[in-house]
Every structure is written in structure tokens, then in C-alpha cells.
Amino acid sequence: MPDLLPALGPWLICAVAAAVGCALQRLAGQGFGMIAAPVMALAAPEFLPGTVLLAGLAVGAGSFVADRSAVVVRDLRPGFAGRMLGAVIAAWIAARVVGTPALPLVVGGVVWLGVILSVAGLRLGPGPRVLFGAGTVAGVMGTLTGIGAPPMAIVYADIEARRSAATQNVFFAFGMAVSIAALTVAGLIGLRHVAFAATLLPVVGATLWLVRPWAARVARGRIRPWALGLAATAATVLIARSLIGA
Phi and psi of 18, rounded to 5°? Predict the structure, then answer.
């Protein structure tokens, strides 16, 4: 029977990554998966992607509740539809890569794709077709790795900061729920993923509480370079270690 939790050292590393990613997600509407997924792939790869998704659901839900009045409700339906389609596609792919040496490379590659999309300067605007397409891409990325925020971040790049973060956090929480359902049906989420995620919930709750005073004062532009730098560094180390060890 596989261990329900990683050893203390890897757990602490994952907990720190979850706290940093949670803070970024709350303040900017993205960041949890891009930090937590590559770090967990390095420290406790056997718990991917289920634990990141389960913890991410709590992060997204908690972040959404804090700013629910700022959500752009009309944008939700097309984005939700795309996310569901992407999750179904990704569940089929995940059944073939989870638990194999390919998974760390997939995680690292998706993180770098997210970084590139984030700095590409694309300006799309939240129309129904764009939201559906972005939701589909986010569904594939998020279900495979827990990293589904970058496509929506591009769509909301020019939207007022509080509305942007709040609406992205709704998509993030919904996306985590759909991805969890898809991977559960595919048999890729088990008791150990739930147990590990449960031990991270106090970290998530404490982080959401601690960053509350900063939510209205911190500009996304100040956080973004640090978030992308951390994510790119973790992804590069993950890819390098996977290739060297191959």
C-alpha cells in the first residue's frame, strides 16, 4: 500500500510552495499551480496531479469568496463550458502519462508555456468565443498539471485588477472541481491525494487570512515578475533533473 503522505522534508517543501502559490493566487488571480505543481513534481511526484488540484480547489474557492462581489458573472458560462471540454480531453491524456517518467516533463513544459503566454503581450478581451477557447486550453493544462490560469490571465490582462482577479479565481476554483471529477472518473485520484491535500488545508487557510490586508494595496504588476521568475526556475530545475536522470 502506498504511503498516504510524503516524508516530513518533502511535505515541508510542498507546504511552502503551496503557501507562496496561494498568496499569489489570492492577490493576482494566478500563480498557485505554476508554483505548487513543479515544486511538488520535484519533491513528491507520486502525488501529482491530484493533490495540486484538490488543494487548488480550496485556494480558488477561498480567494473567490473574499472578492465575490467583483466577479463578472456574464463571462462565466462560456469559460465554464470550455473548461469542461478541456478537462475531458486532458483526462484521456493523463491516463497515459500519470505515473510515468513523462509526467515531470509535461509539468515543466506546461509551466514554461504558461510563462511564455503570460509575457507574450497578447490582448484578446473576454468575448464568448475567446472565453470558450481559453477555457478549453486552461482545462487541458489545468487537468494535466494543476496549471490552468495563464490562458484566462491573458483574457483579463486589461480588466481592472480586482474584477480580473475575482473572476479568474472563480474560473480557477470551477476548473479545479471539473478536473478533479474528470481524473476521479479516470481512476487517477485516490486516498493518498486526498490525505496530502487535507494536510495542506491549514496552510492554505492561514495564507488566505494573512494576505487579506494586502489584497487591495498590492498591484498585480509588482507581483507578476516574481511569480513568473519562481515558476520558470522551478520548471527549469524539474526538466533538467528529469532529463539528466533519464
Answer: -65, -40
- pLDDT higher than 90, residue 145: no
Residues above pLDDT 90, as percent of the chain? 35
C-alpha cell of 242?
A: 528529469
7 to each of 12, 43, 60, how far by Cα in Å?
9, 10, 26
- Write b or e for each residue in 179-204: b if 16 or more Cβ atoms lie within 10 A of its Cβ, otherwise e: bbbbbeebebbeebbeebbebbeebb
Closest CA to 180 of 98, 69, 91, 107: 91
Q: What is the pLDDT of residue 214?
A: 78
> What is the rounded CA–CA span in Å between residue 144 and residue 9?
25
Task: Calculate the alpha carbon distances from 175 to 25, 144, 145, 210 in Å.
Answer: 14, 12, 12, 25
Residues in Cβ contact with 13 at an 8 Å cutoff, skipping those fewer than 6 apart = 39, 42, 43
- Supply the pTM of this predicted model: 0.84
